[in-house]
Amino acid sequence: MALIEIDNLSVTFTAQGRQVRAVQNVSLNVNAQESFGLVGESGSGKSTILRAICGLAPISGGSIRINGKAIATPRGKAFSRQVQMVFQDPYASLHPRHTIDRTLSEPLAIHGLPGTDQRITKALTDVGLPTNFRFRYPHQLSGGQRQRVAIARALMLEPEILLLDEPTSALDASVQAETLNLLSRLRAERGLTFLMVSHDLAVIDHMCDRILVMQHGRAVEELSRDALAHAEMKTDYARSLFAASADRMLEG
Amino acid sequence: MSTLITWLRDPNPASRLQSKLGQSYLSWLRLRRNPLAMIGLTISLALVLMAVFAPLLAPHDPIAQELSRRLLPPGTAGNWLGTDDFGRDILSRIIFGSRITLYIVLLVILTAPVVGLIIGTIAGYFGGWTDEILMRITDIFLAFPKLILALALVAVLGPGMENAVLAIALTSWPPYARVARAETLTVRNSDYIAAVKLQGAGAARVIWGHVMPMCLPSVIIRVTLDMAGVILTAAGLGFLGLGVQPPLPEWGLMISAGRKFLFEQWWVATMPGLAIFIVSLGFNLLGDGLRDVLDPRSTSK
After folding, report:
1. Residue B2 within any structural domain of the chain
2. Edge-to-edge order in the sheet of strand A69-70
3. Is residue B296's pLDDT more than 60?
4. Per the domain annotation, does B170 fall within a domain?
5. Which residues 133-192 of A have a C-beta within 8 angstroms of B?
6. Residue B63 is part of which domain span?
7. What is the ipTM of this complex?
8. Is residue B71 part of a domain?
């Protein structure tokens, strides 16, 4: 049985009487400790799937099950200890008026977990930040450091599933690689399950065991890493997406 | 002193307190660069000191009457700003009046912005029906002219300083609610709010701990800019005889008493008027300076 099972998921936004179907009948399964990638161009609905899992986007059809159980609405505290998310833009995902300490201790306070000091120190060390950054504000950190804080925050509650919404697209190339390596290491150490969104096939190739290619809110094709490595796509769209980033993949 | 500054400027603070004080120190440096704001701050501090040390500063008892020395012009020895129609020293009355002014201002800024902030953030955060109901109530309060509503309230509650404060507070919270709501709407869909919701935080925690700190700067700026208005409304109520009651030396009341001799003995009304003018100007300058320091849009870059 897969850890995350998504069946025929549809997400429809209603804005000013107009309906936008951001995701249409997408199904996917993610096994425990697997890293699953969602790829597609902007507006293909890949981030919306992550937001729908977190309860941040309106689900209009289909179902999401975690560990075989349909997830509760509203999501609740049990859900937050199981699933956490790392957002795309580290400049927007940290509260500008809270110190790193406050940002990291908030989840512990919400869930009434003891040992705040040790946990924060450990979390900072785990993501490769010096512990004397603890009382800094986000604006005193670089983009890569902020994203490390965001990853540390997502791991404070020791979730088994981490949703990654283009975690490196706002960072420059060298920092991107560091952050991806950090994520790979944390996954190996903690046995995490990743559901990762990216428009960059190079990133997905580096990180994921299986990928789902999406276009216009629909699933186009599911590929294993081997199929990706040998360019064995069945659909034209997946092939063109692959061609667009093949140069960079070969470099890396 | 220099060790204190190094401690404040330490890029790696060792505690929440040091971190917070360090940020305040940087804000202070930004404020200090603005000469007009420093003038405003000086005036405001002078008002506070004047209120605290009123008994030491005032040359006379503000209530003691001396009818043989009534309506003396400014510059008379012993009564440098002149005397009023009961022979009371105007300078002493202005100095003691600063206590009443400050008391009213403090009570209003401890109530109205807090109420406005709570209502505005709740309306903005929940949206929908909550927003509609709270904002329509706000609109109703906004639709009344401030002084008229305050007059009506004082007429019902009876004149007096506490009731005047209550009336001013009740009429001045709606703008804060609007400011707080507008600010809430810009932050409620941001990723950091989504992140804390995803951690299982309830609405109260999100509003109190995460939304309000973002609204606070705009509200604080608005408060300092409104302080002049509060002083003027209090003076207006005093002038109409509905606020502070005689013989207490309230500035508006003093202007009202001096109105009778405005043409022959101009100083009786002019001196407290000048006091109101200077204090209002001080608060406005300070508010403008604080806007430059606190406004998140101008400082975050």
Report:
1. no
2. A18-30, A4-15, A59-66, A69-70
3. no
4. yes
5. 133, 135-137, 139-140, 150, 153, 156-157
6. 41-299
7. 0.89
8. yes
